[in-house]
Every structure is written in structure tokens, then in C-alpha cells.
Write the C-alpha cells for this entry.
Amino acid sequence: MNSSITINDTTLRDGEQAAGVAFQIPEKISIAALLDAIGVPEIEVGIPAMGAVETEAIRAMLSLGLRAHLLGWNRAVPSDILASIRCGLKRIHISVPVSDRQMAAKFQGDRPRLLRQLRQCVEMALEQGLWVSVGAEDASRTPLEQVIELAQMAQSWGCRRFRYCDTVGILDPFSTYKQIRRLVRAIDIPVEMHTHDDLGMATANALAGIRAGAQSVNTTVNGLGERAGNAPLEEVVMALRYTLGIDVGVDTCRLRELSQQVARASGAPLPPWKAIVGDNAFAHESGIHAAGVLRDPQTYEPFPPEAVGGQRRLVLGKHSGRHLLLQILKEHGIPVEQIPPGQLEKLLEQVRQHVTHCKHPIPPAELARYCRATLTQWAQHTPEPIPEESHPDVV
Ligand SMILES: [Zn+2]
């Protein structure tokens, strides 16, 4: 296994191909700048052949003088390569379909023509001194021998990397490992993983490919991408660190900031349970979990939230218990020793009813206010219900 893995983030190309997503130029610039600032070494910035607005965005990103290599995506069409050259890109990726189905749709099944065209484009780019990568679209639905043959040709023409695409996300980690192991052994240039999440295995497949010897991996922030999306940057980076012990040199403390920036720019908010960067990634509600975390956060956390710029949240909800309730009340200055016997349980029951009815946790400050006001009444009668206008909050 190689410990120097290159992250090649394609949020600005494949990510933007997600249905309904279109970044404005300033958004592209700030996403590229933040990717660069956190140490992502390579960024696929777009498709120069798309026209004036896209090339303007790419030129603007090139003018930032980022440390990251900026890479343009191309079809095996000479005009695409010319568009990349005109933008001033020094690195390009050329993608060709390899499965029978995709070749039929795009090259009328004419593989010799596809190869001639690809070679012409590679030579054009190399003559201009560009760094060239070639990618096999739909490789996972293609006999591996054909993929290897293409990879060997690309290598012999002078290409610097070969991208293996699980374009429709149908692989599992075991089959990925087998395929990539054979591919890696058949060529000398690095293999790059490009995985999609149609079956929810994009990250797992990317990691399986790396275990098998791939040295580069495509990611997108939040997993943004076509259909079910791509392998999420934040998941790949953290999984490499915590499962394979590989540090890719990314400042993970800013992953949540980056995630929120891309969520805003894409108009695609994350579900709270999203791994690594979701709002609930470090939230604890149930009695057993919250009590464990209050004693030692590692009881129910794989790594501290600070590692990804997140925050631990202890949420008072339907499954919370006495420990968390007492902790919250103490933190808000409620003299818990004055709470009459049995009232704590009643209060927990009220919390459950409130949360079930209102569908969100009780803000701790509001609960404390309520407790303070009713502390003196508890012994005499059942207090008023918790106000319904409560909004979610953190401890
Ligand atoms: Zn893709």
C-alpha cells in the first residue's frame, strides 16, 4: 500500500454536474481557494469546452496562483484539448468510454476510432508540454482486459496517470480490490479511483482501490455529484486516516467549514446524519450515550469533533435520561438539590411529550428558564407544559 495518496478533488467539475447545481464564478474561486488552503493538492476545476463562462472561471482560478495543481476535464475531441490549452491549464484529464454500452452511445461502438482520436488528443496535449491523465469511463462494467489494454496504451503514449471510473457506482469493495490489484500490477503509472455512490459504497470502494495500490482518488465535498454523488472528500480523508493510517496532508479542522461553503454554493443542504460534517455527527441524546460521553467523549465518538471543525452537542430529547438533564440544569445555574423527589422523572416525561409533539429537541436555556420559574411550584402541583415555541439549540 502506498502511503503518499493524492487527493484530486472534483467538486468543481463532477460535483457541479449534480442535478440543479451551478456555481457562480466567485463561488468557484472561493471553493478552489479553500480546497487549496486546507492542502488538497489537485483540483479538477471544470470543462473548458463548455464555453466562455466556464473558461473565464478557470482562468480566474489559475490567476490565484494556488499551490494545488489545477486540472481540466476533456473528451477525446481535439477542440476540447484546444479549449484547455487556451485557458492556460497545465494539467488535463481526457475521458473515454470503455464499456460496450457507453461506446455504442458515444462512438457508435467504433473502438478503433475512439483509440485513434484519443491518441491524437494525447499527442496534441503532450506537444504543448501538458501533463495528461486518461480516464476509462464505465470501467467497472467493462471486461478488465479491455481496461488494462487502454491503460497500457495510455502509458505508452506518455500519459502520467490512469483513472478507473465506477461511473454508475455498481462495485463493492471486494470486487474493487480485485480489479484494481490487477490493473495496478499491469501498468507503471499511478491509478486514480473515481467512484460513485449509487449503492452507497463510493467511499468504501475508493478505499478498497487504495488498499489495492491506487495512488490517487477523486473526491467531491459533501459527496456532491451526479445522481447519488461521488466519494465525499471529508469521508475519504478521515477514513484514510482512521482505517488505513494514511495522512494525506489535508487540514481536517476546516472540513466542516468547507462543507458548509459548498452546501451554500450548491443549494444542497446536508442531512443532519451526514458522516463527518453533518449537524448530528457529534450529537448525543440517548441516556446511555450522553452519560457515557459526559464521562469520556471517546465512549461514543470515533474522534473528537474538533478534528473536523465540528462541535459536540448534547441534545435533550425523547431518549435522554437523568444524567443529561441534571447536567444541563446545573450548567444553567438551577439548584438541582432543591428539586423535590420524583419531579425529575416528571420533568423527563414532559420533555418526551414536548419533543414528540414538536419534532425538535428542547433548547437547554429554555428548559432552564422553565425550571427556574416552576421550581417553587413543583412540590404543590403539576406545572404548565413546556412552551411549544421552543427551537433547537445546543448545550
Ligand atoms: Zn463521475
Residues 6-266 form a domain with the TIM Barrel fold (CATH 3.20.20.70). Residues 14, 167, 194, 196 surround zinc ion (CB under 6 Å).
